[in-house]
Task: inverse folding
């Protein structure tokens, strides 16, 4: 465990790496007095922004690929691009996946880069969302470089999408649960204040955050008095890491999708199902994980074909 | 307190605290641009009620509460109500000199970026904003016990992050 003093030092060092645009309290008071109803922008110094204007014409990369020009020079009252816009500088490519196209393009511009948008038909991916990017986030590139963002077009929306497609954050939750299921890496989570465990649609127990960290609590005594006979995480632990993660309801082995259990409608569902070799439905299982609005695990249900 | 005195008081507070507020939001996961915008919005809200804010037992906790509520509101209006964390430093590029102050800071940011947002938030509020567990609970509207357990797990996660191993090995702290 880190001592508090070390944690403070580490956080302070992290904070020191963040550049903050200067702005005085007097300027803010003046702004607040001038207007109380419009949206505020940060007042900055007179650092002019040199914009690289790129012709907004279609370029190679597919019939539905277009290049989004860098913005025209902006007034000095707008926030300065971050982290750099000077020619020859190296910049870090921002995270773009999971943003809307509009937001992603705006972020690329703010980073002093040029966005190239590729609309593709990606069945059942969320329409209008960025699902891939090149170069990947955190890569260092020269200022003014082109970043390709892949956006799911309207044809991606299909009536018979049985499952969503998970993003990195969701895989992180699943991997955390997998490690936890095997007793690796200590606690998983993050847990919501109460974590409900269910077998199929029957709620069996509700754990506090602290209890949820105890692996033994996931063994359910389904028949009181007998030995624990259902381990909610057993299939996951024995999966060898061969599982897939999807968003939303999933079909069972023969393709029937069960309805969402009452009370869980407002939560985001991840379904973890095996991808390993299977000879029959007897090998099928699904772990349904429901996350609350701050991505904490609130409800976990194990399903299998035959009990 | 008259308006001009309140303005002076508010202005002095902004000069002293605004950078820290922006940095806190960036470490939580905002882009620098968004963080500055959010801080501006929150401070304007506080300005309108500065007589009450400055009279509070702890103005910092009050301002952070306004800031995080504003941040939460803005996120709830966005795509899925959640978005990826802020740009993370290039680990490959910074791994050679982690003893350096800035490199350590970047490694910590990378580690924060790999955490879930609730964990990042408690670390930032406890150890950057320097709020007590009770104050963090008040800011986030959650029980103090939850703050304590999250802080404990977040610290364990931070300590176990591979990008910080080298920091400890090289004696930096």
Result:
């Amino acid at each position: 465990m880190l001592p508090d003093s070390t944690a403070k030092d580490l956080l302070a060092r992290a904070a020191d790496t963040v550049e903050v645009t200067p702005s005085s309290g007097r300027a803010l008071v003046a702004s607040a007095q001038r207007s109380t109803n419009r949206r505020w922008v940060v007042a900055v110094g007179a650092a002019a922004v040199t914009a690289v204007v790129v012709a907004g014409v279609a370029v190679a990369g597919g019939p539905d690929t277009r290049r989004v020009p860098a913005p025209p020079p902006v007034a000095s009252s707008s926030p300065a691009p971050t982290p750099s816009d000077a020619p020859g500088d190296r910049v870090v490519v921002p995270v773009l996946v999971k943003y809307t196209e509009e937001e992603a393009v705006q972020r690329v511009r703010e980073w002093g880069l040029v966005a190239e948008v590729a609309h593709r038909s990606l069945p059942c991916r969320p329409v209008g969302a960025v699902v891939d990017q090149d170069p990947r986030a955190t890569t260092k590139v020269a200022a003014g470089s082109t970043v390709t963002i892949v956006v799911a077009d309207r044809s991606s929306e299909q009536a018979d999408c049985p499952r969503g497609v998970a993003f990195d954050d969701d895989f992180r939750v699943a991997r955390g649960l997998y490690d936890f299921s095997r007793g690796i890496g200590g606690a998983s989570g993050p847990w919501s204040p109460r974590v409900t465990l269910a077998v199929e649609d029957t709620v069996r127990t509700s754990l506090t955050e602290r209890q949820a960290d105890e692996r033994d609590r996931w063994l359910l005594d389904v028949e009181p008095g007998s030995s624990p006979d259902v381990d909610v995480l057993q299939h996951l632990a024995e999966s060898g890491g061969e599982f897939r993660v999807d968003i939303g309801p999933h079909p069972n082995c023969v393709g029937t999708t069960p309805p969402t259990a009452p009370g869980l409608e407002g939560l985001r569902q991840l379904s973890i199902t095996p991808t390993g070799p299977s000879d029959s439905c007897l090998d099928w299982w699904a772990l349904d994980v429901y996350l609350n609005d701050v991505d904490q695990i609130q409800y976990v249900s194990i399903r299998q074909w035959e009990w | 307190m008259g308006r001009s005195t309140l303005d002076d008081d508010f202005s002095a507070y902004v000069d002293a605290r605004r950078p820290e507020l922006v940095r806190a939001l960036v470490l939580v996961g905002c882009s620098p641009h968004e963080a500055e915008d959010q801080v501006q919005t929150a401070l304007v809200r506080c300005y309108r009620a500065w007589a009450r804010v400055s009279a509070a037992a702890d103005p910092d906790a009050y301002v952070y509460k306004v800031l995080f509520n504003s941040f939460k509101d803005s996120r709830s209006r966005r795509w899925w109500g959640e978005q990826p964390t802020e740009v993370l430093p290039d680990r490959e590029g910074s791994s050679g000199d982690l003893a350096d102050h800035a490199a350590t800071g970047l490694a910590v940011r990378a580690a924060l970026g790999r955490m879930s947002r609730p964990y990042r938030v408690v670390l930032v509020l406890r150890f950057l904003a320097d709020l007590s567990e009770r104050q963090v609970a008040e800011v986030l509207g959650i029980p103090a016990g939850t703050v304590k357990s999250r802080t404990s797990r977040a610290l364990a996660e931070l300590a176990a992050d591979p990008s910080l191993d080298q920091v400890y090995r090289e004696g930096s702290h």
In short: The longest strand of chain A covers residues 191-199. Residues 168-181 of chain A form the longest helix (14 residues). The two ends of chain A are 42 Å apart (CA to CA). Helices of chain A lie at 4-16, 25-34, 101-110, 168-181, 209-212, 234-237.
